[in-house]
Design goal:
Layout lengths: L1 E7 L4 H14 L4 E7 L4 H7 L5 E4 L2 E3 L6 H10 L2
Parallel strand pairs: 1-2
Antiparallel strand pairs: 1-3, 3-4
């Protein structure tokens, strides 16, 4: 099963939208979702604070400007 890492934070509408897209794709492309709150580690906060949400699927990293249903689906298909 694929592993998807989702960098997020509380009270983030873009993060909520990305979560909805991931939920929509989960049935067609089963994956294990690991949510990471960027405020739980300084290195994540420093790296992602202006880019969240960020989704990592194997070698593909998508930030807030790149996340769409199509982009997520493509990344999940490539690693399937």
């Amino acid at each position: 099963m694929q592993r998807v890492i989702f960098y997020t934070k509380e009270n983030c509408s873009l993060c909520d939208d990305a979560q909805t897209l991931l939920d929509l794709l989960k049935d067609a492309y089963p994956f294990q979702l690991e949510e990471r709150d960027i405020y739980s580690k300084d290195e994540w906060l420093e790296k992602y604070q202006l880019m969240i949400p960020v989704v990592k699927i194997n070698d593909t990293t998508l930030d807030c400007e790149q996340i769409s249903y199509e982009a997520l689906e493509k990344a999940l298909k490539e690693t399937n």
